[in-house]
């Protein structure tokens, strides 16, 4: 059996929670631990470590690392940069990846912790903002982790990094530029051959934080035909947070869209501060539009069939009318011919009357 321990593998296999009061690490005899913001004497109830500092400034704070297990636990404690996952979550770079942003500004006083059963250690750390730090929001985390060995589906032994951390949000003073973008819009229309069922339209797009403030918002998608006819609108779930530089791939569906040939999709999102604090200047609405064809093939086929049946009925009716008219004309002509013959041969008529 081969052994593999690589950065990419660790990044994929890592189990992390932000924030999480307790983490159960599979395969470690129900070892559980937590990392929470803390004062010098213990946890203080803060949901995250949140600071606003000037470039060049610093601060000292604490995290409480608690062993909830009934046996000793040895953990690695380290900071690293945060990012927005493809699914919209908050995660940190792998433990063996060097921090380049806010994670590199954090220095923990201890990087290895040996915790007895059911014990807690309060660990001081410092945050020092570089003098040339860019204004806006920077995110990181302080993580307590433990490595375990596991076997993957191919029978290879791999190292899995089980991590629990406390979020760190740091706003560096200076000009704020809140902005979201909507790009890479893809449209897929599913049309049923049942003419009574209207098409199902799926829109997939990427929301990117192109500014320097962490933002959230609620995306909205609308499909409408020419002159705004047949409009359909859907509101999607609220996006709680996208970190600066982060992206999120989103999919939404619109049912029963009237097929009006040339359709227009409009996707928009009004950004809002993820932390609920006001932003100056206020973020502007992000908007993207795409046009696409939505041809009503089943309805056209039904109309064609109806038109064909109607044309056949009209043609049959016209033929019947013509035949009746021809028969009447023939009968009238025979009557006229008989009358004409009688006028020309009156003797025959008298003999016939005798």
UniProtKB/TrEMBL annotation:
Keywords: Membrane, Signal, Transmembrane, Transmembrane helix. The keyword Transmembrane helix applies. Residues 1-24 form the signal peptide. The chain crosses the membrane at residues 292-315. Residues 28-47, 326-354 are annotated as: Disordered. This is DUF916 domain-containing protein. It comes from Actinoplanes auranticolor.
């Amino acid at each position: 059996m081969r052994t593999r321990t690589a950065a990419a593998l660790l990044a994929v296999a890592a189990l992390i929670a932000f924030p999480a009061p307790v983490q159960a690490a599979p395969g470690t005899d129900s070892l559980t631990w937590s990392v929470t913001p803390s004062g010098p004497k213990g946890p203080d109830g803060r949901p995250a470590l949140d600071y606003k500092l000037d470039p060049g400034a610093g601060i000292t704070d604490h995290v409480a690392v608690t062993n909830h297990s009934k046996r000793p636990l040895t953990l690695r404690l380290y900071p690293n940069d945060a990012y927005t996952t493809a699914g919209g979550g908050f995660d940190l770079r792998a433990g063996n990846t060097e921090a380049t942003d806010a994670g590199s500004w954090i220095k923990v006083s201890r990087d290895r912790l040996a915790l007895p059963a059911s014990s807690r250690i309060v660990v001081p750390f410092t945050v020092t903002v570089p003098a040339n730090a860019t204004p806006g929001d920077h995110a990181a985390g302080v993580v307590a982790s433990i490595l375990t060995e596991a076997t993957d589906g191919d029978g290879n032994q791999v190292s899995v990094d089980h991590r629990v951390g406390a979020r760190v949000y740091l706003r560096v003073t200076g000009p704020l530029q809140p902005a979201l973008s909507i790009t890479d819009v893809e449209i897929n229309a599913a049309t049923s051959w049942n003419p009574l069922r209207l098409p199902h339209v799926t829109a997939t797009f990427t929301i990117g934080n192109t500014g320097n403030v962490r933002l959230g918002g609620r995306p909205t998608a609308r499909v409408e035909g020419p002159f705004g006819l047949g409009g359909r609108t859907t509101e999607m779930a609220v996006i709680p947070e996208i970190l600066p530089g982060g992206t999120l791939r989103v999919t939404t569906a619109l049912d029963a869209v009237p097929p009006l040939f040339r359709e227009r999709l409009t996707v928009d999102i009004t950004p809002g501060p993820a932390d609920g604090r006001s932003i100056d200047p206020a973020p502007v609405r992000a908007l993207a539009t795409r046009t696409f064809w939505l041809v009503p093939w089943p309805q056209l086929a039904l109309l064609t069939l109806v038109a064909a049946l109607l044309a056949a009925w009209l043609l049959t009716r016209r033929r019947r009318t013509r035949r009746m008219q021809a028969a009447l004309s023939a009968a009238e002509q025979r009557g006229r011919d008989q009358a004409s013959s009688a006028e020309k041969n009156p003797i025959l008529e008298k003999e016939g009357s005798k």
